[in-house]
Write a structure and sequence with these properties.
The structure holds two protein chains of two kinds. Chain A has helices at about 5-10, 20-45, 60-80, 85-110, 115-120, 125-150, 155-175, 180-205. Chain A is mainly alpha-helical. Chain B is an all-alpha fold. Chain B has two domains: about 1-130, no CATH class; about 135-195, Orthogonal Bundle (Arc Repressor Mutant, subunit A). Chain B has helices at about 5-10, 15-30, 30-55, 60-75, 85-105, 120-125, 135-140, 145-155, 160-165, 170-190. The chains are: A mainly alpha, B mainly alpha. Chain B: Keywords: DNA-binding, Sigma factor, Transcription, Transcription regulation.
Chain lengths: ~210, ~190
């Protein structure tokens, strides 16, 4: 077929370009992901009242929300062919560094015999994996949103979806997390979110092709 | 982004970009003639871009040109007027080129030397090249509703309103069927060619 004819075919009755509503898609994904993650957390807690959120340690919530914001800006940018993600990427690095700083200062200030308790808590073996598990619905929702849009850097887009989802998982997990140390959160929460990002990176090139 | 743009896109970027962009914005607003015009110009840019990068695969260049055009059409909503049009076109075409190499299991080919491309090929624009795309055959593979909507509006030249009246659908439903049909075509093109 001649390209000229093909162009005629495409242009005929093409009408005006439809709207490209990135933020609507990701708001929907966020709603679904948060509902799933917080829902699992509250069910696991056996207490479905939202009042439970008030006893969650503030730094866990602040950490998850900061990463969620970085993830939002990255993933909404990467949903388009041309994306600028330097700023949210730096912001993400900064957030992780600040949390690491709090972690290290806890470590330094603690008596030597308590360091391992602060570092490992009682739940270090499950924390990161549960955060990953809590984030899976959010990851599915974010990848769905990306699939309906036009990402061209698939690995990066998958990574951003993983960060976005991992933060939602961490938020839900915080509801049932019994630990009370900056060091614990700096290590195991970060690892859990990183696992989600890694999964997103692996899935991106496979599921986001178009 | 503009800094690592290939030369077919960045050369004379100023004038090419401003002309293309003006046409493209008209097309986005629904101007069909402008859309035809700008797609034709973009096709020429794409042909030069792809010929350089598909040494040894010249026979497939025109297929990919058309695949890119279809992708640009389907994703035209994703163009942000604040960005250079050529960068957007390039990002989507590069995505399609990578997808092509992935399908053809020739990752290394991305790094092929561009020296063996016949420069005459790059210059020559005398004959409009043909692709292997067989539209009639591809359309026959679509579900009935999508095929009818595309045939009526895009081949028989009916307006969307006329097509809607003919098959008793709303105009919105016709547009949805056309869009879904084209989307499916973009998948079929990869398998069938």
């Amino acid at each position: 077929m001649k390209t000229k004819d093909f162009i005629d075919f495409l242009a005929t009755d093409a009408g005006p370009a439809p709207a490209f509503n990135v933020s609507l898609k990701f708001r929907t994904a966020l709603l679904a992901g948060l509902a799933a993650s917080l829902g699992i957390g509250m069910m696991a807690n056996g207490n479905a009242s939202p009042a439970i959120l008030w006893v969650v340690r503030w730094y866990k919530v602040a950490y998850a929300l900061s990463i969620l914001a970085c993830g939002w800006f990255m993933v909404t940018q990467l949903a388009r062919p041309i994306s600028r993600i330097a700023k949210p990427l730096w912001a993400l690095a900064l957030v992780v560094l600040v949390m690491a700083g709090f972690g290290v200062s806890t470590w330094v200030a603690a008596p030597a015999d308590q360091v391992s308790a602060l570092f490992l808590g009682q739940t270090w073996q499950v924390c990161s994996l549960l955060i990953l598990a809590f984030s899976l619905p959010a990851l599915a929702a974010a990848l769905w949103a990306l699939r309906t849009l036009a990402p061209t850097r698939l690995r990066l887009a998958g990574f951003a979806a993983g960060i976005f989802a991992g933060a939602q998982g961490a938020l839900g997990y915080a509801v049932i997390c019994p630990e009370e140390s900056f060091l614990f959160v700096a290590v195991w929460y970060t690892l859990g979110i990183a696992l989600s990002a890694l999964l997103g990176m692996l899935l991106g090139p496979k599921v986001l092709r178009w | 982004m503009a800094n690592d743009m290939p030369r077919e896109f960045s050369a004379r970027l100023g004038t090419v970009e401003s002309e293309l962009r003006a046409l493209w914005l008209q097309a986005q607003a629904g101007d069909e003639a402008a859309y035809r015009d700008v797609l034709g110009r973009i096709a020429r840019l794409l042909r030069a871009y792809l010929r350089r990068r598909m040494a040894g695969w010249q026979d497939d260049v025109e297929d990919l040109v058309q695949e890119c055009l279809l992708a640009l059409h389907l994703q035209r909503a994703s163009y942000d007027p604040a960005q250079p049009l050529s960068a957007w076109v390039y990002a989507i075409s590069r995505h399609k080129l990578i997808d092509f190499w992935r399908r053809n299991r020739r990752y290394g080919a991305l790094n092929d030397s561009i020296d063996d491309v016949d420069e005459l090929l790059l210059a020559g624009e005398a004959i409009e090249p043909m692709s292997h795309v067989d539209l009639a055959r591809l359309l026959s593979l679509l579900p009935e509703a999508q095929r009818r909507a595309i045939e009526l509006t895009k081949l028989e030249g009916l307006s969307v309103a006329e097509a809607a009246a003919r098959i008793g659908m709303t105009e919105g439903a016709i547009r949805v069927q056309v869009h879904r049909g084209l989307k499916r075509l973009s998948l079929l093109v990869k398998v069938v060619i």
